[in-house]
Amino acid sequence: MSLQTRTEQWKEDPNLLAILYKAIHQKFNLHIVLSLGSQLVYTLQQSMKIQEEIVQKRIFATLRKAFDRMITEAQSTTSNNFRTTTNHQMLTIIKNSRNDMKLTHNITTVMQKEDQLKKEFSQYITGSAMKEIQGKIKERKLRCQMKPIINKILQDQFISYVEAERQLFEEEDQNRIRALRENNMEKYIEIVQESKNNRLLDILKITEEFLQQICMRVSIQRLEERDPQFQQQEQIGNQEQKEINDVYYSLAHSIQEELKEPPRLLTGGQLKPYQMKGLQWLISLYNNNLNGILADEMGLGKTVQTIALLAYLVGEKKNKGPFLVVVPLSTMSNWENEIVQWAPGLRYIMFKGSKEARDSIWRDCIRNQKFEICVTTYDYVMREKQKLMRLDWQFIIVDEGHRLKNNECKFVQVLSKYRSKHRLLLTGTPLQNSLHELWSLLNFLLPSIFNSCESFETWFGSPFGKTFKDGKNTEVLQVTEEEKLLVINRLHQVLRPFLFRRLKSEVELELPSKKEFILYCGLSLIQIKMYETIQKEGRIMIENIKQGKYQGQLLNRAMQLRKICNHPFLFLPEWEKEQWTDSIIKSSGKFQALDKLLFKLKATGHRVLIFSQMTHVMDILCSYFEMRKFSFLRLDGQSKNREDIIKRWNLKKEEEQKMEKDVDGEGKVESEGQEEIFIFVLSTRAGGQGLNLQAADTVILFDSDWNPFMDMQASDRAHRIGQQNEVRVIRLLTTGPIEQRIYERGKEKIGIDKTVIQA
């Protein structure tokens, strides 16, 4: 066996000291012993794992010291003596190291026990316990790996579920709204009950309660009138809830009379089909002892339909009246002209004029009832109430009936005391600001049915901004489009027997279109300066050249801002305006735009109506017209001979040249042979209602009214039956915030009207 082989074998023996002892006693030569000793020392240093570091170092030191001594002695002695010396030295080393070997043996025993424990522990953990632990670890790892996948699957399933639910809800919503638009309330209620929509069910419940109350009041009224046809019908209290909506209208209009031809006293023209339908509805009101509102859009002939009703009552029903027709002062001449044209066989009187003239009419005609129709104004209804209240009127008809929108005003309170069997309101704008106004009209017509404004607004006011207060907090009720549509549908069911409305776009297809434009005008430098001064200081200082004084604090800031937007000359004394005539145009942004616009309109043959809220603005406009040599007419609340002014405007060129009478309110008109009058400037309040001015095809709203329906009424003076041309309405708006605010507020009010009345 070679040295290397022996050495490798000895390296594998864990007992290193025993290996060394064995090598010495086998009588190797010195070279082998020294080599083996070096190998063993190195092996001991590299391989021996003893936990006690002190013992390890001690063994190493003892062995190395012994080998060093052996090498030294080997060099000084002969080879013959080497074996003995070496044996002796090795025995000494072994003897000296015996204690260390015992310690090493103990350490080895401990390490063996530790290895045994490790082996047993390893066997334990590789057994069932380890498998359980590893199973849990594996399961946890699997869960961690599967978690994103599971989440993705759940997310996809949730999205699919939500999408399916959304589609289901949308389908339900569409079915409900479709049934609502088709006025199929039975189907709608069934769908709502299936979906268990509590908010919709609440709305249905409270509006159904109101409908039941209205039905009950109508039935009581009909019973009190001892209507034989109505007494033959079943009582409304015995009807099932779902049938109330079906019988409500038929209950109110239970007596039906078919109108096959126009009244025989209506000889002045042929009614249009939609006017015949309106007459049929008015006759139904009369036959069923109901009052109502004819709310056709302006220009569809409410006056003609009313005259047709009166002709029917006198001719077919043999009802000789008396009939009281209350109209604005500016429309009296129009009513007279329409009566003469359409029903010349009717006897009428125009109750107006001075005190002596009215007394004469009373003595000669009214007291002896030598008339059938009495046409008068709002003012005379109050001033002559002591006389007019003596009569039992068959019909009280109020033109521009929206004047009754405030049930607390004096005119409404006085007119409500007049005795009459029937009442009828004519208005193109039954709702202008709020539901309270609509209720006021209904209360005047049917006080026993619509007797509570509070309950009316509670049931139907929520979609239009009604608030509910809880302590100090005020919350605006937010409603969906469906809820709003539902409330409006129920409101229409309430109004249907009493309100009849058509739009031009629905019935008068041959009427030319009406287009509206907004012309924005910048403020002039002086307007900007004055506007900023009032906004900052609340007053404006304008030097009075003649007296050296200044204007001080302004009372109504909003009104003064509006005046600045119109023209700064409104703040000048009368005598100063004449000195600044050449500055009329450049001082106002609106006048600058108007000047360019009018020249173009005149060159293309248009005739123009100009409406303004302020008579002083009309003064400045007239000065401007004279400066530009535009022919014009003027109509405001102070104008006399207004009938002649209106007739002059509507005359054709040939007829106008034959007129010799000087008309008050006329501007400078060139001599005979000149073109038709170019401009008619009117006050919005005095000339914006009830007039037929279809000779014009262009309407300019110089300034906007807080009530947008006044502007609508004004613009429809030209857009009405008889108009041959397209009507263009041009609204002048400056960049001043006050005018923008008025315009935006007006759009909100129009939105309420479209929602409630026109929906």
From TrEMBL:
One of its GO terms (cellular component) is nucleus. The keyword Hydrolase applies. Residues 593-759 form the Helicase C-terminal domain. SMART domains: DEXDc, HELICc. This is Putative Chromatin structure-remodeling complex subunit snf21. InterPro entries: Helicase_ATP-bd, Helicase_C-like, P-loop_NTPase, SNF2-like_sf, SNF2/RAD54-like_C, SNF2_N. The lineage of its organism: Eukaryota, Metamonada, Preaxostyla, Oxymonadida, Streblomastigidae. One of its GO terms (molecular function) is hydrolase activity.
